[in-house]
Fold each of these.
Amino acid sequence: MSDPQLLDAVVRSIAAALLHSVWQGALLGAVTAVVLKALKGARPGVRYLIACAGLTLMVAAWTGTAWEAAARLVPEARAAARAGVAAPPLGPAGPFDFSPAIRTISPADLAAGAPAWRHRLEGWSVALVPVWLAGVLLLSARLGLAWVSIERLRRRALAPVPQAVTARAADLARRLSLSRAVRVVQSAGVQVPAVVGWLRPVVLLPVSALTGLSPLQLDAIVAHELAHVRRHDFAVNLLQTAAEVLLFYHPASWWISRRIRVEREHCCDDIAVSLCGDRVVYATALADLESLRGRETLALAATDGPLLQRVRRLLSPSSSAPRPSGWLAAAVPLVLLGVVMGGATLTGTTASPEPAQNQAAPSGRAIPAGSGVVRGQIVDAQSGRPVADATYEITGPMDSALGRSDDSGRFETRPIKAGAYTMSVLAKGYVMGRYGPRESPFGTPIDVRDGMVSAGIDVKMYAAGAINGRILDENGEGLQGVEIVLEPASGPVLAGRRPSAAFAQTVEKGVYRITAAPGDYYVRAYVGDPLPPGKDGKPRTYVSTLYPGVRVMEEAQPLRLEAGLDLYDIDFTLASAALLQISGRVVDPSGDSLDSVRVSMMALEGPTTRMSESSVGVDAEGRFEIRGVLPGTYMLNVWDKRKTSRWVGAMKHLTFNENVEDLEMRATAGARVIGRIVSDPASTRQLDISEVSLQFEKRLTPNGFTMAGGTRIAPDGSFETDSPGGLVNIGVQYLPEGWTVKSIHLDRVDVDGQAVDLSGGTRQLQIVLTDRLTSVAGMVVDRNGRPLAGYSVVLFPADETRWTPSSRFLKEARSSQTGQFRLGDVAPGSYLAVALRDLPFRAWTNPDVLARLQSIATKLSVAEGEQKTIAIRASPTPDGIAQP
């Protein structure tokens, strides 16, 4: 673990102890006060032990809380270090938090955003750690100076006392059964009698005590100091002082420590009286020493404690002890805690969350029941200036709203039905904008609440940059009708490539202009529709070409596009190539007729809306031939009019740069699957399976291409069908509303969410459906409790065998402007959950990404039918996963 991560864990652990010690100390102080009041007539020794126990418990609570927090935070820091996550910045405003990464909260707390003030309170406690540390260092320095002063007293200005005093002191020590030798000396450095040291104790007597007190009074005072030695009070006092340093900020510790010192003196007073036998003599001795009061911190003097109270107690032992002031000491921290909590709550309600908050309806305007209003502003991302007359569209499953921004860029929708919405904006000179982080392809959800105004929905618009140039043929002539596409140089990869960012087409003389958001791009040109023949009358054959005229991405040159600026003269020649011939054979090991079989070839070079496709039949031996194929990347598949699943595994994703003569497309025999779909006996409704369909999904290539096959279900829930061969995921489609899958068992083995081998044989399958739906909803917060918008909450199973891309155990949702999210139709089980900001689109379906997230995620269990609500703390995205 790195030093910053260790320091982060230590600071957060101390912050936990400081925060919780406020109420812990208040509670312990109050309990100590109650017990002492109940025992006000008890012997001083009993009251002394009660007070010592109270202070000990305060220290134990402080250290226990810090230890528990460290035990949780240090492993988290180690896991973050292994995952390559940088330690958060240190400082009073740093993102520290010692609370659990996931907290279960009530639906009411979720709706009100209640966890925020608790997190703010915890964040504030971190800011106090440097203050606490400064206080500890200051008091420790003071304690060190006191120790130095005590050592000086032991070594200088010492003189022997008269032999009579030494003899009487020895007799008192013998009567107290002291096993250690105690020196009694005269000191010019003290004004009242005191005892210093523990292993080698020394009783210091000032000259005034030797000359101003009678022998009986002096014996009583010396007996008091010897009682401290007999009780080991010097060592206890040292530990007590250390506790005072640790808890210097807590009034309850001051009061309990004061009670310890008072009861300690009472105990020694009683011992002194028992030895000298005369309370009046001892009381007058204390009174005579009052004028000489003044001592060192670590020394134990005869005049410690409230002297007047001690004298009264000696002269009237039956009098009641004064009322303990522990109530006030316990109440002060509770009042302070209430003020802090109130301030945190006030902060949470007055400060606008980033980036938005819900507000009550404006005065004078009624919002219909079940509806809400969205309000915000559209601004330029660079200058912050308002964008006027921008067209916005807010869409959701239940309603939509269209409108334009005013001169100040502001907008406010009509009342729309409560629910989750997304927002897109179009403005002249800008690329399409969405509400939320720019990296999110679909934006951040907007949570529209019943009777509320969702305010602060601000959209940043990025001025479009443009690339201008010409596409030429091999003779330098411009080519009209060529497709131009911009491909991002970084970002999420889908199906083996990054989604195209912008499209255009060349016009006369091959001129093109294409606009997009600022960023780094590759320019790709390709022929969509066939071009007219050249001047020689021959068809022109061109292949997909990247700027500056190359065919492979490794040789292409990315271009930096700046907001509002144009790049000119991005000209390049479209590469030509000879047409290819692809031939091969279709093989069906089952020996079935191939009359209904065809081979299709689909080009993947252009956007999916313009893919070219060709299809040819096969002869009796399964041979096929496709002519006039441009070099490029294609998807080959075998189609059978009989809709058999045998050919699913024959699909091939190939790149052709030369003729191919021996391509084989082989059928794979799958299993015969027989089974039934039934409803869970615990379900409360009648199951309608008229639209339900069994689905087999097979992932064919690492690039994410899948094929699905299945069959409809009979009215009684039974089915019998052939499956694709190889590893297949089993699922159900078109379930009735309010129903979900409870379990999938193949040959009585749970295979829900797992890829299973269905190659050959007959297999028994049972699928149980239930109407007991399970969900996980909640709020994403930072380490100070503020809601976070646009974060991805990923829920994935602890069982790694269920990390298949189509597994229903993999769930992801993005937090709305209020930080809230919802994951519906969650399968019961044990999960890991994590909230991240810069997670690329659908990266959570990649098992390698889940393995990286595993070390920073938190365990979460979900029971069947449970509607769990949580607050989840956001985590830094591990290196290598964040969107560039």
Amino acid sequence: MNSIIGFSELAEGEVMSSKARGYISKILDNSKWLLQIINDILDISKIESGNMELKTVPFNLADLLANCQSIIHPRAIEKGITMNFHAAPPLTKALYGDPLRLRQVLLNLLSNAVKFTESGQVRLLVTVTNSTEDETTLCFEVDDDGIGMTSEQIAHIFEPFVQADLSNTREYGGIGIGLSIAKNILDLMDSKLEIESTPGIGSKFSFTVTLKTAGGIDEIPDIKGDSEEMNKPMFAGEILVFEDNKMNQQVIIEHLERVGLKADIAENGSIGLEKVKRRLEQGEKPYCLIFMDIQMPVMDGIETAPKIAALGAGTPIITMTANVLSADMDLYKELGMVDYLGKPFTAKELYSCLLRHLPPVSFELSKDDDDILLAKLKTDFVKTNQEIYAKIMSAIETEDITLAHRLVHTLKSNAGFIGKTELQMAAGAAENALKNSGSLETVMNIFKDELHKVLDELKPLLAVALNAAPPENVGEPLDAEAAEALLLKLEQLLSKGSPECLGLTCELRRIPGSEKLIAQMEDFYFGDALKTLIELKESGKKQEGNHDGKE
């Protein structure tokens, strides 16, 4: 799984056709789904053997809920489902408990709600039912407008590997252990999962937990989710990687190369130990970091790590393994391994780990650049979508559903680029109704309302754009070499459909004949822009050839 997910994530960063990118995206999504099943099975094993233990650490409930929302929202958007999260009142104190297990319960419940809901809403409500100086009681409710269950189905719903209706496995997927895990985690929290459900109407799952409180929420770190934006850091140095699996070697080598680090591979502990010794004996610079696999032939990580630590090189040793039981982690720390990187890991998890131990030499994109790009995206959105609703309705009235679907789909993507989630969801619901010939009146009214909210909010940007004078002097035309480099970079971004291409428009204006290309980019027609770019490059080559002929 580490290799499949790792190579898929690496492939996403390459230039490829949109069709191939779709294949890679599906491989990655399904690999993560399979990994979740594997993790769930491991959790069931830990529960049944009595090895699951809860931690007690401070956490911020608002961060936890935001993380859940960021993970579930994309799934709801794909199905055109509205999702509402509400927590009242906001807490000012830190809660003490196991945020990862509480998050796991909520994600299981929310995932099920989205999975079994074809239209309507999924809601999460969190209320404080009791609060004292030392503890707080919270009630969590997840309800949906899904298929619902009968009382007979509810009676068996917590049995592992059982779904309420066996036909659901084929239609909706899954293996029926999420609710069993949630129930067992809540049992450890001295809580109980309650269910209310009506076939064809929907279901509500609720539970109450009492947690200790102490200190303010400003005193604890935020819970960071997978969807958190992170600029890519760049480093310098060489890392020793203990890894015997050839495919895993390639994954970690390429990931490290992308952030400026060289990887030296050791297939087993004995080889790696000799590499460290040789550097010390020859007075060479030590490795800046060591990634230690645990299960290796000849000499495993358990035996190797303390021997390296005893050499006194001072290089931090990071565990790189899929073994994540708390007992394992305690052992790794005792053996001198100071941190942990799971298998499989995402690029962002790797960046976070590296940043904890190595000073970055630079970042690929600064926050200011991100802010400039986002402001331009918002300006372009309000400029190009003033008449979009009228165009969509005109297409519907003339029964050109293909055009209506394309316009809604494009707007949904653009709304996501500028972070307008509610509009993105409303567009997703309209897209789903158009695709499945569903009832349009309600979803189009909601879509219209959300669109007008966003356009009204961004209207000041439109006024600035309309009043801004066009640049009188965009600078001297780029020379051939600089123009070629710029167009190559732009081609890579357009091939990926990346809105980062908009950050190149100022420099692009210095290439004669680029006006059509810039206009297509600003209208988010990245596919058309790519074709125009290729034509512009060909035109430049012809002009260069004619010039050479005259010479």
